[in-house]
């Protein structure tokens, strides 16, 4: 109360002095310690603590107020809780001490350190047979591959009706319940399935030869091409006007699309099966920086750690540190546990509870044996079931480990590390390569003497009508030269690409280089086939 009386007296004296010097009655701006306003403006002469007065010709401030003393750099007085908002503005001292977080060089160094830590973490995880990532995310990313193939397949299926309309009615007889292009699709899928089913027996039959891989790959490629050619006489395609406006072009187009769809189905099934092998070894890892014991002058001396969350539990396990743990810790721990197990053996009840089988002859009396026979039998059956399940799980893990090692040996890298873009491009490459090969071989076949002759008349032709039909339906004489040139060329191309996918060559070439080279070959074959059918003119 005494402070209030003193403050009131001081305010009265200041007011009287002001009225004596300023009789016109100008306003006075007073603020006290009890004011709740936090907006401070130097131009009005109002401060958050104490009182000031202003004049139109002379503006002065109280220089020894407690507020100004509290704002000095030495900070002699503590901050008042009501004025905490005033102290949020940075001063020269705090601005000099604050780090510059928007420095591009520091951000680049931070990014390099994080990338280095992630690379070392991946190396450490792969050394333990683990991989960073989520199985659900892995499957979702791989789902882009069938989606890309489906979109490309749909675009190619609508391409002939839009760009190459038919000039004549459909000449081939079809059943009403099996319209075009269902016969072409079913036939091509069946022939591809036959070629794929003969692959394993063929490789097993030629396994005893020194060059079994090369010979088996070459033979299987030739078999697949011949089966693709067999579909043409089965459909009874006739050499009329071998152009894109001819119905035979539509049949060949859908034959190729069916074979490509069957090949894509097999490849996608293998791709999903390969990713399922990594289900149990994918872990979630978070990299963080611990700067508590780091040297401020050396940014790379921060302690980088990674915490691993296992898929089967919610516990967080310390897995990797930049500071390596001594190897003798594991050995010392095992020796201690081994000595502890030797000093404290299990009893029969504890061994049965832990899954150990009890001996057939136990040193118990006959009464206890007869009384506990049922319990021991049930306990032994449970232990045997648990042991059998554990053995089966171990065998499955070993088989998955062996399959992963074989895949990594074939590709030269883990399958899940292959970019999804390359996998999508590989499916598109296979589609264009199959389509281009079918167009090339079918055009050469229809110009050869192996193709059936086309007779527009239904009556048996005479000699004159036969010559007229040949001149009208096929202006040029049939020749086997295109087929003799294109069949070995396609065979050599498919064989080279198939051999490039074998483990010795694939590791040397690399997956990206092989995919891009296949893209060039497949696009070249596709445009060559369309051009041979006069579709580019």
The biggest beta sheet is recorded as: 4 strands, mixed
Please write the string of helix (H) and strand (E) elements: HHHHEHHHHHHHEEEHHHHHHHHH
Number of helices: 20
Q: Termini, distance in Å?
A: 105 Å
Number of domain modules: 3
Cα-based radius of gyration, to the nearest Å: 43 Å
What is the quaternary state of this protein? single chain
Choose one word for the global shape.
globular
Low-pLDDT regions? 24-63, 73-100, 291-306, 312-364, 455-475
- Residue-averaged pLDDT: 71
Q: Reading side by side through the largest sheet, how are the strands ordered?
A: 1-2-3-4
Share in helix = 55-70%
Transmembrane segments: 138-157, 205-231, 513-533
Biased composition (Basic and acidic residues): 57-73
Keywords: Membrane, Transmembrane, Transmembrane helix
Biased composition (Acidic residues): 104-114
Question: Care to describe what's here?
Answer:
The chain is mainly alpha-helical and 537 residues long. The chain folds into 3 domains: 77 residues, no CATH class; 62 residues, no CATH class; 254 residues, no CATH class. 58% of the residues lie in helices and 4% in strands. It contains 20 helices and 4 strands. A 4-stranded mixed β-sheet has the order 1-2-3-4, covered by helices on one side. A hairpin with a 6-residue loop joins strand 3 and strand 4. Helix 8 runs antiparallel to helix 10 and helix 16 packs antiparallel against helix 18. About 29% of the residues have low confidence. Keywords: Membrane, Transmembrane, Transmembrane helix.
Give a concise summary.
This protein has 20 helices and 4 strands.
């Amino acid at each position: 109360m005494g402070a209030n009386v003193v403050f009131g007296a001081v305010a009265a004296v200041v007011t009287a002095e002001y009225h004596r010097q300023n009789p016109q009655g100008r306003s006075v701006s007073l603020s006290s310690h009890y004011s709740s306003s936090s907006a401070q403006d130097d131009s009005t002469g109002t401060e958050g603590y104490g009182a000031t007065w202003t004049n139109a010709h002379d503006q002065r401030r109280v220089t020894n107020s407690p507020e100004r003393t509290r704002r000095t750099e030495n900070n002699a007085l503590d901050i008042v809780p009501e004025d905490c908002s005033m102290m949020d503005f940075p001063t020269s001292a705090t601005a000099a001490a604050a780090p510059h977080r928007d420095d591009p060089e520091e951000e680049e160094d931070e990014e390099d350190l994080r990338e280095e830590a992630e690379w070392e973490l991946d190396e450490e995880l792969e050394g333990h047979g683990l991989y960073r990532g989520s199985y659900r995310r892995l499957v979702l990313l791989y789902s882009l591959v069938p989606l890309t193939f489906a979109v490309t397949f749909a675009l190619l299926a609508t391409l002939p009706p839009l760009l190459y309309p038919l000039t004549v009615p459909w000449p081939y007889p079809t059943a009403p319940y099996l319209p075009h292009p269902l016969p072409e699709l079913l036939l091509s899928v069946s022939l591809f399935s036959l070629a794929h089913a003969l692959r394993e027996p063929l490789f097993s039959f030629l396994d005893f030869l020194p060059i079994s891989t090369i010979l088996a790959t070459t033979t299987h490629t030739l078999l697949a091409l011949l089966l693709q050619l067999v579909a043409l006489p089965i459909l009874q395609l006739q050499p009329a006007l071998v152009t894109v406006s001819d119905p035979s072009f539509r049949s060949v187009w859908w034959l190729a699309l069916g074979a490509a769809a069957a090949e894509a189905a097999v490849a996608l099934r293998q791709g999903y099966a390969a990713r399922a092998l990594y289900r149990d070894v994918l872990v979630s890892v978070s990299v963080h920086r611990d700067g508590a014991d780091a040297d401020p002058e050396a940014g790379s001396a921060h302690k980088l750690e990674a915490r691993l969350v296992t898929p089967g539990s919610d516990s967080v396990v310390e897995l990797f540190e930049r500071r390596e743990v001594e190897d003798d810790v594991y050995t010392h721990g095992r020796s201690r546990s081994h000595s502890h197990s030797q000093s404290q053996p299990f009893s029969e009840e504890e061994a049965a509870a832990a899954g150990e089988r009890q001996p057939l002859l136990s040193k118990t009396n006959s009464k206890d044996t007869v009384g506990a026979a049922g319990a021991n039998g049930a306990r032994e059956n449970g232990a045997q079931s648990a042991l059998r399940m554990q053995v089966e799980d171990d065998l499955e893990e070993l088989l998955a480990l062996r399959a992963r090692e074989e895949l990594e040996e074939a590709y030269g890298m883990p399958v899940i590390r292959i970019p999804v873009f390359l996998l999508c491009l590989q499916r598109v490459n296979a589609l264009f390569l199959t389509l281009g090969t079918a167009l090339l071989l079918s055009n050469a076949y229809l110009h050869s003497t192996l193709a059936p002759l086309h007779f527009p008349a239904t009556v048996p032709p005479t000699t004159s009508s036969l010559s007229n039909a040949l001149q009208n339906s096929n202006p040029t004489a049939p020749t086997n030269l295109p087929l003799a040139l294109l069949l070995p060329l396609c065979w050599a191309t498919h064989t080279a690409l198939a051999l490039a996918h074998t483990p010795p060559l694939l590791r040397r070439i690399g997956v990206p280089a092989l995919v891009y080279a296949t893209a060039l070959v497949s696009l070249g074959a596709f445009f060559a086939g369309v051009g041979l059918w006069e579709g580019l003119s």
